[in-house]
Design goal:
The chain is 48% helix and 21% strand. The protein is an alpha/beta fold. The chain has three domains: 3-99, Rossmann fold (3-Layer(aba) Sandwich); 138-301, Reverse transcriptase/Diguanylate cyclase domain (Alpha-Beta Plaits), CATH 3.30.70.270; 330-342 and 371-561, TIM Barrel (Alpha-Beta Barrel), CATH 3.20.20. The strands form four sheets. An eight-stranded mixed β-barrel has the order 12-13-15-16-17-18-19-20, surrounded by four helices. A five-stranded mixed beta sheet has the order 6-7-5-10-11, with helices on both faces. Strands 2-1-3-4 form a four-stranded mixed beta sheet, sandwiched between helices.
Length: 568
């Protein structure tokens, strides 16, 4: 506690830290010999040293001014009123105590302000950085890209590369979540270190800025600015793919990872961050489909040939002209070797271009924004066809329809499904929607809500081409999935490749443990079916049984059944 004193220059003093037992000092006797007055500087030093509030008792105004200049808290001039001195001393004590409390409150407020600011910064960091790897997330990457595009030119290009860690779901299944996360952390470290390495800097001809990010699951991104052109971007991405691919260690486990990449360059591939990222994602999808190659959006033959331009021109009118049709491929039940259902597959017989495969026109339809209309048409047409087969007395347990990502993101798919069910009167459990693994398993809350709404109708949901995307086992438990369809790229090698056999058997075992049905796509040989049967696969689909055929031919398959090639 601060103390206050009343002091005269002759030496009379009153302390406010508590009155002396005998009360405040009596005024000096008129007979008291005068004492030498201390110099103001001496007085100031004494006050500072003792950290007290001082009342100076002064003989005249000159001394009062000198006392205040020397640091006195208050002054009293002759004639001295000791009661007044006492009251002023008490007031100074209260002021000192209040000032001290205010100081403490100010310190506490400063501390709280600092804490809140730290928490705000930490929250902002958490909101835009991946908590597992510490890398920026997709939103932060998009903002940085938007800023970088402001300086992009033909001589100073911006590249965005998306790197996909292939078969992540199987890595999760083999290693468990904790060790698989450790591998993802190592991938992030390799990517960040690679962008700073001398060989990458040389290949890129000294980019002015680089940035790495994790945009979801096993999908990582790199942005480089100031690139002279396409050759430098290609060389840089090749080096990064080589760094990310190869051996990783998780505890005592060793795994080998393959990486594919899709690249977009600005300004050629877009002038906004959204456009460039979309082009990079399309290129990444192509790279996965081509078996792990590096694909540049602008270098894709699909995007630059005269044929692709003709497809884009003719596609909007194909439905109206009746050129787009549905063919149906059987789903064969393992336990009975009978046809249990059908998958509806798009076919386009163009009057100008001939037969155009879905792998060629569906991506272009998505880019042109046509898949919303085409997807709704497929859903309603397949539902009507199922109704027609049932009305003719044919047995069918389900009809499967492929759903594109844009239908989930931009449309009201649940409403379209409900309308198709109401129009045709088929039971909801007859309808199955097949969803892209890469598109759906992104833990998007809006997609999850829509899928749950569809599942609540009684419609079954399947993950198509499982094993080719960047999903995690945890997502399978989160999403309301009923069926896994193993991609045909694994089925082809089950009889000849120990790796494909191990991946396929592990996927079947995992799905069964999760209570999911398993469908094997692309079954073409009896040996493949034997392998799948031994490991407990639920259903098969492929050319061994039948290709996709028109509705009339499929009805005939339902009537007569399949041939002896699938006998037990």
């Amino acid at each position: 506690m601060r103390r206050a004193a009343a002091r005269s220059w002759p030496g009379s003093t009153a302390r406010a830290a508590g009155k002396p037992a005998g009360g405040w000092p009596a005024p000096p006797s008129k007979c008291s010999p005068p004492r030498k007055r201390p110099a103001p500087s001496s007085f100031s030093a004494q006050a500072d040293a003792r950290d007290v509030a001082v009342i100076a008792l002064c003989w005249n105004r000159r001394e009062a001014r000198a006392a205040m200049e020397a640091g006195a808290s208050d002054v009293l001039e002759r004639p001295f009123d000791w009661r007044l001195a006492s009251r002023r001393a008490d007031r100074l004590v209260r002021i000192a105590e209040t000032t001290g409390e205010l100081g403490r409150l100010r310190e506490e407020m400063d501390r709280l302000r600092t804490t809140l600011e730290d928490e705000r910064r930490e929250r902002a960091w958490r909101d835009h950085f991946d908590p597992l790897t510490g890398l920026p997330d997709g939103e932060r990457l998009e903002r940085a890209l938007e800023n970088a595009l402001g300086t992009a030119s033909e001589r100073s290009q911006v590249a965005v590369a998306l790197f996909d860690i292939e078969h992540l779901v199987l890595i999760n299944s083999r290693l468990g979540r904790a060790r698989a996360n450790s591998v993802l952390q190592q991938v992030a470290q390799r990517l960040t270190a690679g962008l700073r390495s001398e060989e990458v800097l040389r290949a890129a001809a000294g980019p002015s800025m680089s940035m790495s990010a994790r945009v979801g699951g096993g999908l990582f991104a790199a942005m480089l600015t100031g690139l002279p052109g396409w050759p430098e971007a290609k060389a840089t991405v090749r080096l990064l793919v080589d760094r990310l691919s190869g051996r990783y260690f998780a505890g005592d486990e060793e795994i080998v990872i393959s990486t594919s990449a899709g690249v977009a360059l600005a300004p050629a591939d877009g002038l906004t961050a959204e456009a460039v990222l979309q082009k990079a994602e399309l290129a990444a999808c192509e790279s996965v489909e081509s078996g792990g190659a590096i694909r540049f959006y602008g270098q894709s033959s699909r995007l630059v040939t005269e044929r692709s331009r003709a497809i884009t021109r003719l596609l909007p009118h194909a439905l109206d002209r009746g050129e787009i049709q549905l063919h149906y491929q059987p789903l064969v039940e393992e336990s009975s070797s009978r046809i249990s259902g059908a998958e509806a597959l798009l076919r386009w017989g163009s009057s100008e271009l001939g037969n155009v495969p879905p792998s060629e026109f569906v991506p272009l339809a998505e880019e042109a924004g046509l898949m919303m209309g085409i997807g709704s048409w497929v859903l309603r047409t397949a539902s009507r066809q199922a109704r027609a087969w049932l009305d003719s007395g044919l047995a069918l347990s389900r009809i499967a329809v492929n759903v594109s990502l844009c239908q989930l993101i931009r449309g009201d798919l649940a409403r379209v499904v409900q309308e198709a069910l109401a129009e045709t009167g088929i039971v909801p459990s007859l309808l199955e929607l097949e969803l892209s693994e890469r598109g759906v398993l992104r833990s998007d809350p809006d997609i999850l809500r829509q899928l749950r709404a569809i599942r609540a109708l009684g419609v079954r949901l399947a993950i198509d081409d499982f094993g080719t995307g960047n999903s995690a086992v945890a997502y399978l438990k989160q999403f309301p999935i009923d069926i896994l369809k193993i991609d045909q790229s694994f089925i082809r090698g089950v009889s000849t490749s120990s790796e494909d056999a191990a991946i396929t058997s592990a996927t079947i075992a995992m799905a069964r443990q999760l209570g999911l049905r398993v469908v094997a796509e692309g079954v073409e040989e009896p040996g493949q079916m034997d392998f799948l049967r031994r490991h407990g696969c639920s259903e098969y689909q492929g050319f061994l049984f039948s290709p996709a055929v028109p509705p009339e031919a499929f009805a005939e398959l339902l009537r007569r059944g399949l041939g002896p090639q699938i006998a037990s």
